[in-house]
Amino acid sequence: MRLKTMRSRELARAGGGRTRCSRFSVTLTVLVGGFLLAGCGDRGSEPEVNAVKPEATVAPPISWPMTRGGSALSGSAATTLPLNPAIAWTFTADAAISAEAAIFNGRVYVGTSKGTLYCLSADAGQEKWKFETKDAITAAPAVTATMVFLSSNDGSLYALNAETGAEVWRFSTDEKISSGATLIKSPDGGEDWVVLNGYDGTTRVLKGADGTVVWSYQTEDYINGAPAVVDGRYIVFGGCDSQLHVINLKDGSLVHRIPTEAYIPASIGTFGTMAFCGNYANQTVAFDVERGTVAWVYQDRALPFFSSPAVNERLVLIGSRDKHLHAIDRKTGENVWKFRTGGRIEGSPIVFNDGVLFGSSDGRLYAASLEAGTEVWQLDVGEPLIASPAFGEQQIVVGGDKGTVFSIRGQAASNR
Question: Which domains can be identified in the chain, with CATH numbers?
Answer without folding.
Answer: 2-32+60-415 (2.130.10.10)
